[in-house]
Amino acid sequence: MGLDPLLIEILVCPEDKQPLWYLDDESALVNLRLRRRYRVADGIPVLLVGESEELDDEELARLASKVEASGVLTGTGAGDARA
After folding, report:
1. How many C-beta atoms surround the C-beta of residue 74 within 10 A?
2. What is the DSSP letter of 81?
3. Sign of the dihedral through C-alpha 69, 75, 78, 80
């Protein structure tokens, strides 16, 4: 179950208040700046820093490649914006 496009427009990281990358196929929101992954459970983003997953170098590189190919930037107020 994907996220509602209106929700994608307003979501930001709870820690640095900057946009996240949404990866629908991974059910995850990713903050590459802080090396964090937030899961999306049943269409609900779990944006609790304490429940986020810290990304190691290998996983960070893998997700950065996916973001470049198909990630959707959140918090832009523009829907399906890409960097």
Report:
1. 23
2. B
3. positive
The pTM (predicted TM-score) of the whole model is 0.86
Buried residues in 2-21 as b, exposed as e (16+ CB within 10 A): ebeeeebbebbbbeeeebbb
Task: Give residue 78's pLDDT.
Answer: 60
Q: Are 57 and 22 a contacting pair, CB within 8 Å?
A: no
What would the pLDDT profile of 19-68 be if each residue is shown by its tens digit? 999 999 999 999 999 999 999 999 999 999 999 999 999 999 999 999 99
- pLDDT given for residue 1 in this prediction: 62
The structural domains of the chain, with segments of one domain joined by +, span 5-73
One CATH from 2.20.25.10, 1.10.357.10, 3.40.33.10, 1.10.10.10 for 5-73: 2.20.25.10
